[in-house]
Amino acid sequence: MQADCTTITPTAKWAGLGLVFETEDEQASYETLVSRCHEEGLIQWSATSTSPHGNEDCGVSDASCNVDVAFQQFKLAQEIRGSFDFVAEYESIDIDDFDDARNIYPHWTGGRDRSGRPICFYQVGLVKDQSLERYNQNREPRDAACGATASLARRQTIMVTDYLTRFVFPLCSAMRDRPEPERALSSGMYVVDASGLTFSRLWGLRNLIQDFNFLLSTCYPEILQHAYIINPPLGFGAMWNLVKRWLDPRTASKFTIVPAADTLRILEESIDIENIPTLFGGNFSFQHGMQPKLESAMIRSLTLTPSLVAQLPPGPIQLRHEDGRMELVAVGTLEEKERQDLLGHLSLLTEQEAKIDGGITA
Prior knowledge:
Elements: E1 7-8, H1 24-39, E2 44-45, H2 67-82, H3 86-92, H4 95-102, E3 107-112, E4 118-123, H5 129-138, H6 152-174, E5 188-193, H7 199-204, H8 206-218, E6 224-230, H9 236-246, H10 249-252, E7 255-258, H11 263-268, H12 296-301, E8 302-304, E9 317-322, E10 325-330, E11 333-334, E12 337-338, E13 341-346, H13 351-356
Parallel strand pairs: 1-2, 4-5, 5-6, 6-7
Antiparallel strand pairs: 3-4, 8-13, 9-10, 10-13, 11-12
Helix pairs in contact: 1-2, 4-6
Protein name: Cellular retinaldehyde-binding/triple function
Organism: Pochonia chlamydosporia 170
């Protein structure tokens, strides 16, 4: 469940929100959960959606979900977000602090996989030691376990992850050149480059991994569609056995370890060659920490300010609905001044136009 959705529309609006259920049981479970959350005052009904492109997936995203477990999870997620004003903080966070926090997490490249989901890359060996040290200084021991703490480390983690839910997922959901364009997207493809990883480095990442696992399983449980670990070093099997102890079993089950010799072949099964970094045999010039570089199909669907071209600016971005159109707005604080910079707006192509214009390949 996406924990920032405090306003939910009635049952008749599910399709309009991009929520597509596989079975009647799945829909019934979802509606039971939403009704219970409403009765407990965790969400409110509204006549219209606050985010039409996909962040209302507040609960049962698969038929096997236990409603009681999902309810307790959503309740805790709301308590975590209620421990600070996350909306105001997203709009006012210092841009340098945001990018410093972004360095230690997988981040969006600006591309999508063959299903239209955003691709997030992560090079473990290039995480800055200074950024990791600051993270450990700003965390609380409870961040890895329970409690609605509002430590600086946790707040910044939520800000970086909300970049996906507030901007990336809605933008990718709005693109019509993908399979099932009527279904909103709320998960991404993750690729982790483990080259150079040592036991010492892994142990230094343990707090980050455990804290992030707790937030993923509580506030963003379905944000990870699948993850590939590529270039595993010698002895990685023992390292992975340790990592699995820090992860929720459901999260751990979504990882596939790929031998170095099979990297390009495996990635090409899900990702077009244009969106695979040159480091791994593809055509995309990627560097850890770089700002998203929008793929060509997205650029054609956007009217951007001339200075942007295809590279997005640093810091948080929102996708807002103004006067019947979707606008990209850069927010955050730069040199103690809050910015509200209009980056451009989205001109939705029809599914046929997008495919003719060179969208996602099957």
